[in-house]
TrEMBL record, chain A:
Family that this chain belongs to: Belongs to the binding-protein-dependent transport system permease family.
Originating species: Aliibacillus thermotolerans
InterPro entries with a match to the protein in the record: MetI-like, MetI-like_sf
Membrane topology of the entry: Multi-pass membrane protein
Annotated compartments: Cell membrane; Membrane
Domain ABC transmembrane type-1: 91-270
Protein name, as recorded: ABC transporter permease
Transmembrane regions: 44-64, 69-87, 93-117, 217-244, 250-269
PANTHER family according to UniProt: GLYCINE BETAINE/PROLINE BETAINE TRANSPORT SYSTEM PERMEASE PROTEIN PROW, GLYCINE BETAINE_PROLINE BETAINE TRANSPORT SYSTEM PERMEASE PROTEIN PROW
Amino acid sequence: MELLPRIPLAEWIDAFVDWLKNAEFFFDGLTSFIKFFIDGIETILGAFPAWALILVIVAIAFWFGGRKIGLAVFVLLGLLLIDNLGYWNDMIITLSIVLSASIISIIIGIPLGIWMAKSTIVESIVKPILDFMQTMPAFVYLIPAVAFFGIGEEPGVIASVIFAMPPTIRFTNLGIRQVPTEMIEAAESFGSTGTQKLFKVQLPTAKATIMAGVNQTIMLALSMVVIASMIGASGLGTAVYYAVGRNDAGGGFEAGLAIVILAIILDRITQSVSKKERS
Amino acid sequence: MVAKIKVEGLTKIFGKKPKKALELLQQNKTKEEILKETGHTVGVNQASFEVEEGEIFVIMGLSGSGKSTLVRLLNRLIDPTSGSVWVDGEDLATMNNEQLRQTRRKKVSMVFQNFGLFPFRTILNNVEYGLEVQGMKKEEREQKARKALELVGLKGYEQMYPNELSGGMQQRVGLARALANDPDILLMDEAFSALDPLIRKDMQDELIDIQNKMQKTIVFITHDLDEALRLGDRILIMKDGSIVQIGTPEEILMSPENEYVERFVEDVDRSKVFTVEQVMIRAETVNADKEGPRVALQRMKEAKISSIYVTDRHRKLLGIVHAEDVSQLIKEGKDDLKEAMETEVPTVTKETVLRDMMDLLTERTNVPVAVVEDEKLKGIVVRGTVVAALSGSEVKLNGTSS
Ligand SMILES: Nc1ncnc2c1ncn2[C@@H]1O[C@H](COP(=O)(O)OP(=O)(O)OP(=O)(O)O)[C@@H](O)[C@H]1O
Ligand SMILES: [Mg+2]
């Protein structure tokens, strides 16, 4: 074994990353775009006093979550608890990053999924890439993110997008491919154009499946944002991170509880939207 | 005149490499042999036929015989492996996407075997679909959709969703969706299969009505021979993707091409198919305006019959006289035939199907039934020819009409 020199894979990758840095203007542009996104959402969410935002979220949960009183009460109590424990601002930051990452994932993921559904060639190329992306441990994405974007919230969003986008792509592809043949034929037999077929038949039929993918994407984005506190994305994750560093069990539990509450709220709202579409 | 739809050498083979299978097919190998040798399924095998404008053209065959495949080739929902389809003289294969779309929008509409409705759209929006993709204005298309729904008897269900309707109702929504487009050609894939017998008959009548009024060309697929005979101007019978026989209902019934067709038709109720026109014969008559009892009696003797129909000089039917009554008249020295005449006589028209006149024939066994058109006597139906026709024996049915 000693005869064979070690393959310098790490060096190669480093060289590649160095080379990529030539495209600095591109990464800078991307960074400012993402910053604009996060700032926008943060400004909107920050414009409300806590109590008003709580009411808005409760109302959204009630209307879009299938009008369940139980859910509304849970959301109300959960958010009041977060505010009471003093994690409100951290929660807003985390929520902004999660929403930014999710929205970008959806904006890229749905068209990509549609393209995949329309072309078997694209599907056969994208599918293995998605598999690969999902089997990598989450924090591995932090490394290239830091390499290209430095530290802060923006690389956190980038890493989250990469980590969280696959379900949206997959489910969009799946949902469109699952539309019954006879419905497609009916659409075609009446002389629909490709676009009409997509928007009038395929997407409405696939909506529930796509929403299930979006739900997963949001959950993955949240988990990634917490991890991304390691590279300076502030918010609830940072609170946990500090607590771990200071061996502060109580503080860690509080911040962790806030994350769980946020996760449940996001999950229930998107899941009920998906279920409502399905029935 | 060009045929509305013309099909020539049309073949569809399902599978990855249809070339090889196509060669085998041209060497007259069967569907089964080809499946075994190449793993390819023959959907349609070298079909050629024409459908005339205004015709109801029925396609029949057992399950898997390729009916749905054939009909999908007619609007190019699937591309043929070989052969061509012309609609109004235009070759579908040479059309570009835009031309094909226009043909589908304006000329050909299809009703699907499994309905093919959109579950997330209301019934009204489903029916509007074809007009919507053409860019028609909301009010206009809604009005047409409502009319189509009324035609199929689904008024009041506009705002429901497909899953709230029974199978038969959903099927009628599919029909309404096709009708709303007001196409020249309707392709109907087992469009009545989910309907109960009563509604089914209504829909059949409705279809015949639509076809009569608007001269639509209809390609109608069915499993049901009774339905085929009722609707079809001509019937095409398929087996394993190939055409076995094309002909009018009578031709199919009277001279089945082979055993396959024979088995199809063996237990059909012929009395539902044959009409009076096919069994009526020339009537012996007397003209009451100028002929008297003696002529009547003489004519009955010559024809060896015991009753004779009486008309006026324009062949308008007046009644019937029986031999014994006429003899009585002569004995009494009267010479107006009308005095012995029975005016209450049962009549039928040429279009009456035999089944509907069986009662008349059995009630008055030795009096022939008069066939009347515009009050004029066109002929008579006697029991003998009817029985012969229904028993399927090879009698030459001579329609001595007009
Ligand atoms: N998309 C397809 N791929 C492969 N084989 C097919 C496909 N569609 C139809 N076939 C085959 O083609 C043959 C004809 O099928 P088709 O659906 O036309 O029959 P059908 O006469 O309409 O039957 P049914 O009365 O049951 O509707 C069958 O052997 C079927 O298995
Ligand atoms: Mg079929």
